[in-house]
Specification:
With 319 residues, the chain is an alpha/beta fold. The protein has helices spanning 13-24, 40-50, 56-76, 93-99, 113-126, 168-182, 198-204, 211-226, 286-295; strands at 81-85, 105-110, 135-136, 154-158, 187-193, 236-243, 248-255, 259-263, 266-270, 275-282, 299-305, 311-317. It binds N,N,N-trimethyl-histidine (AVJ).
Length: 319
């Protein structure tokens, strides 16, 4: 395994977090970008979410990868370099790699260096012949692929419906840049969550055990710890609603009273019921997602879904 040069190291997140919170809470419609939910504790809580009965995406996608892995591997061809965007714990990658014939390399890209190292060590043990070249970077920024993968055909892998975090424009922009990075002739296997009944959708983002609430409210603990905040977590609540017009789950931190808080020596006021938007999770129909991919210059091909039409896996190609 090789680790990236300093030039590819990401900026320390601390200053960025401070800037995002101070600016985001100064706007009339308060918001904090969702990537700040995923610190070490947040990533742990998200892993807990993926194991909830109500949270169908993870197990459904894992099922699809198992069922259609061979078909996917055949489409990708032999000797591919697999490039995973936002690989995190790389919990789904082995299913894909097991089906692929003589993959040339695995390139996990993630902003969390610890998760990246851990996953690389685990996969290296599991696939001793597979060269692994981790890239420590924010995959939403411009990145370079390691020289070591040379001219191997590339298969991008973007599971989990992480693309659902992005607004339409940002999603198109990301897919276009992923296409430029992977290059001509490459493939992209991408998971997209599907639109569905609210009685299934809402509990997936507001579970009975309150794990999702804990995940959302962890942001308050992070603000208190890292940005000298004095927020009282009991005075806020997790709120998940479905925006029917746009087709997305919207997650908020809601203030339970009129209150004023202090963060890095600055004061912020909340009225009772006021919300801070912290995450979006866009849901697509298959035609909608194909249209989005086409806008970003990808050819749409195979789509796999489960028998309950909960989740979709798309295989895209680049001419
Ligand atoms: C990591 C963006 C795929 O949208 O389902 C789940 C995030 N937040 N529950 C999703 C999330 C709260 C998740 N993604």
């Amino acid at each position: 395994m090789t680790f990236p040069a300093d030039a590819r190291e990401v900026e320390p997140l601390q200053a960025e977090f401070a800037e995002a919170v101070l600016t985001g809470l100064s706007q009339p419609a308060k918001h904090i970008p969702c990537r700040f939910l995923y610190d070490a504790r947040g990533s742990e809580l998200f892993e807990d979410i993926t194991r909830l009965d109500e949270y169908y995406p993870t197990r459904t996608e894992i099922g699809l990868l198992g069922t259609y892995g061979q078909e996917i591997a055949n489409l990708a061809g032999d000797g591919c370099a697999v490039v995973e965007f936002g690989s995190g714990s790389s919990r789904k990658t082995h299913i894909l790699l097991e089906h692929m014939k003589a993959p040339a390399a695995y390139v996990p890209i993630d902003i969390d260096d610890a998760a990246l190292k851990e996953a690389s060590v685990r996969l290296e043990r599991q696939f001793p012949d597979l060269p692994i070249h981790p890239v420590h970077a924010d995959f939403s920024q411009d990145i370079d692929l390691p020289d070591e993968i040379g001219g191997a055909p590339r298969l991008g892998f973007f599971p989990g419906s992480t693309i659902g975090n992005f607004n339409l424009d940002v999603a198109v922009d990301f897919l276009a840049r992923a296409g430029a990075l992977l290059g001509e002739g490459s493939g992209l296997l991408i998971g997209a969550d599907l639109q569905k009944d609210l009685d299934v959708l809402i509990p997936a983002y507001d579970d009975a055990k309150g794990v999702t609430a804990k995940f959302t409210l962890n942001l308050i603990h992070r603000i208190n710890r890292e940005l000298k905040g004095n927020l009282v977590v009991e005075r806020f609540a997790h709120k998940a609603i479905y925006n029917d017009e746009i087709g997305r789950i919207e997650i908020y931190i809601e203030s339970l009273s009129d209150q004023t808080v202090e963060i890095l020596g600055r004061r912020f006021s909340f009225s009772e019921g006021e919300r801070v938007q912290v995450e979006y999770s866009h849901k697509y129909t298959i035609p909608q997602f194909r249209e989005l991919a086409a806008k970003a210059g990808w050819q749409t091909g195979q789509v796999w879904t489960d028998e309950n039409d909960l989740f979709s896996l798309h295989y895209l190609t680049r001419a």
